Amino acid sequence: MGIVFNNKIILRFQSVLIFGIVFMSAPFCAVSQDTVLNKYGLWVINSPAMLKKTIQHDPSKAMIDLKKKIPGIVLDLRYAGTNNFMQRQLYPAITTTYLRKTAIDSLEIIQRELNEEGFGLKIFDAYRPYSVTELMWEPVKDDRYAADPKKGSGHNRGVAVDLTVINLDTREELKMGTGFDNFSDTAHHAFTNLPEEILQNRLLLKNIMEKHGFKALDTEWWHYYLPNAKDYELMDISFKQLKNLKN
């Protein structure tokens, strides 16, 4: 009788365990239905509905229209045209771009502080769909200058931004030693064989970005990202879908 009693206990325990596993895995199942496990084994959100679920769980993940949030900011979205290293249009003809709420809130403060000194920000790129990162990787295949699709980019997560500083009176960019997307050592933060004016301009941008939570990419003076980027999901959602998304 003792053996039978123990078997009943074991069976009851197994039933409870199975129920618990099914219950706990339900959110994961919902996620897997709305995301794509790609060839690199990465989960990439490609559904506005799934993005909306993540935002409901964590409002800091909301994707915010940069132009609406910071009306005075200057945009020069290079991948919406052909003036870029790919020499081709990778985005539709967009007039705004997006960042996660956490990133854009910091950028708004940075813009305000720069404005007080007679400067402002110019944005070259912010959110980038994952599929565009795959296209960019092909001609470069050097993770110093292009994000490896095996890892994804902070741009795909909505927490990286490519930018520079402009003079508000002249609307001209401050001299930074190279243009945007220059794949040479001269664009590195550690490269100091430059005129003092350029070094100070780079330092101005770096200091204010780091003051408000961003981290510099060593090989690109224009690229900054939130250090906890992996807390945010990779996305392959179109700009049109983001525009229509109601958070």
What would a concise description of this structure say?
Helix content is 39%, strand content 16%. It is an alpha+beta fold. The longest helix has 33 residues, at 2-34.
- How many strands, what sense, and barrel or not for the largest sheet? 5 strands, mixed
Can you tell me the CATH topology of the largest domain?
Muramoyl-pentapeptide Carboxypeptidase, domain 2
Strand order of the largest sheet: 4-6-7-9-8
Q: Report the portion of residues in β strands.
A: 15-25%
> What value does the Rg take, in angstroms?
23 Å
* Global outline: globular
Domain count: the total is 2
Number of beta strands: 10
**Structure classification:** alpha+beta
Fraction of helical residues: 25-40%
Report, as a whole number of angstroms, the end-to-end distance: 60 Å
